[in-house]
TrEMBL record:
Cofactor(s) demanded: heme b
GO molecular function per UniProt: metal ion binding; peroxidase activity
Protein name: Tat pathway signal protein
Keywords: Iron, Metal-binding, Oxidoreductase, Peroxidase
One Pfam short name: DUF7405
Stretch list, region Disordered: 200-221
């Protein structure tokens, strides 16, 4: 896309709706996509992006909830546009480099307000990073977690998760960090990551919100017509109900050198949407995503609008998962995952999003949890291995396993904000 001329992009803008056009630009990335995005915003006199103040940001990088909007029920609205920027160290870093990196992040915080109309972001570090700088890693290396996956692993050093309702903000922030834009949102960058980090692979992108999967589906193909117009996620239902999310406190590291931080796991999945929508009907989709009770009692509605802020899977429905497997021959994804709750609270704060990276529909399942072990435990509950052969198959009838393919995994330590620049240096 970098090589594609601006004129051709303008043609493209006419062909696609504005929204699809923005998603395409975020997925493409780079300076040409950024200037096309800014031109489009300017031509429609879109509101200016609010600038920010680093002093107004909280101590925890993952503390986003206080500034997210809410839907009509009170569930938090995740930021619509996302980029995961992988980074590799290109120097043997010292304390001066830490100060430079911190200054680059603070410049972004001055450029954009601390909310979804500005920029929310986290910076996380892999076990490879800690090995490179000669420190003991506070988190384990990623491994395969289920019997039928053979994923690639994130082995770059660091990752910045950029999130905003504004497509131009995620694109511009990415370019500014790496030194290609000197004054994002008219605020001078006091430093950049250039010379300390360079881009790694793979850059990942995505989107979440009512109507976005449908509009994007039209553009890439592989997304069946049955996907409801207003669904926020590719599989056709709402997700991230308030009651099924861990609190930010629950996922905060409670002690040790990174107290106040969190961990991130990213599981990149492709989703077989054709089979999901064309082989199964709405009843079966509800049974496999929520529970057989949700299907027979019609608890969900077309896309989850009947659920308010809670799926109601915790407690009885989660406990009867194996009975459902035997009696119904099908069990729900949410019902299985809820078996991993502790003291009634889920262990994961899910901030996942849809993607069409690689021109196929998928999900970058990004979650925060206090420890990577919390993720592993929940993911194993979701895999439901022990239930196989007891009315459901390893994948068949076993939640959504038949439709998802794990391509990649990565583990990250997200330090508290005051340690986010090259920890352990
Ligand atoms: C294509 C991939 C996925 C889709 C479409 C999906 C969708 C959903 C939906 C619709 C719910 C119920 C609504 C809600 O509570 O938000 C849910 C719950 C949940 N999912 Fe997923 N999910 C996916 C992958 C994963 C993965 C990889 C994990 C990792 C362990 C996971 C963990 C959970 C958890 C912990 C819950 C909440 C369970 C509880 O109530 O305690 N999901 N998911």
């Amino acid at each position: 896309m970098e090589a594609v001329s601006r004129d051709r992009m303008t043609d493209k803008a006419r062909e696609l709706s504005r929204r699809e056009y923005f998603q395409m630009l975020v997925a493409t990335g780079g300076m040409a996509a950024l200037s096309a995005c800014l031109d489009e915003q300017e031509s429609t006199e879109t509101q200016a992006v609010p600038q920010g103040d680093p002093a107004k940001r909280p101590a925890r990088q993952h503390a986003w909830n206080a500034v997210l909007g809410e839907d009509e029920h009170g569930n938090l609205r995740p930021p619509a546009h996302r980029v995961l920027v992988p980074l590799n160290l290109v120097t043997d870093p010292n304390e001066d480099d830490s100060a430079t990196v911190e200054s680059a992040f603070r410049s972004l915080e001055s450029a954009y307000a601390y909310d979804s109309e500005g920029l929310l972001f986290t910076v996380g570090y892999t076990p490879s990073y800690f090995e490179t700088v000669g420190a003991e890693s506070p988190i384990p290396a990623p491994t395969a977690l289920t019997s039928d996956e053979d994923p690639a692993f994130d082995s770059f050093d660091a990752m910045v998760h950029l999130a905003s309702n504004r497509p131009d903000v995620v694109l511009e922030a990415e370019e500014a960090l790496l030194g290609a834009v000197s004054a994002p949102n008219d605020v001078e960058m006091e430093a950049t990551l250039d010379g300390i980090f360079q881009r790694g692979e793979p850059r990942r992108t995505g989107f979440v919100g009512p109507g976005l999967p449908k509009s994007k589906g039209k553009a890439v193909g592989g997304v069946p017509d049955e996907l409801p117009e207003d669904a926020p996620f590719f599989m056709g239902f709402k997700s991230g109900f308030a009651e099924s999310q861990a609190s930010e406190d629950r996922v905060t590291v409670a002690s040790g050198p990174y107290e106040g931080g969190t961990t991130t796991h990213v599981e990149s999945l492709t989703v077989q949407l054709k089979t999901w929508f064309e082989q199964d009907n709405h009843f079966q989709r509800v049974a496999k995503l929520f529970s057989p009770e949700h299907a027979s009692d019609e608890l969900v509605g077309n896309i989850g609008e009947k659920l308010g802020t809670s799926t109601g899977v915790a407690g009885d429905i989660a406990q009867q998962t194996s009975t459902d497997a035997r009696n119904e021959g099908v069990i729900g994804h949410a019902q299985k995952a809820a078996r991993a709750r502790e003291d009634g609270e889920p262990l994961l704060l899910r901030r996942d999003f849809n993607t069409v990276d690689g021109d196929r529909p998928g999900v970058h399942f990004l979650s925060h949890q206090q420890t990577i072990a919390d993720f592993v435990r929940t993911r194993k509950a979701m895999a439901g291995g022990a239930l196989a052969g007891n009315g459901v198959g390893q994948n068949h009838g076993n939640g959504i396993l038949q439709y998802i393919f794990v391509r990649r995994r990565g583990n990250f330590l997200v330090p508290p904000r005051d340690m986010r620049a090259l920890p352990a240096i």
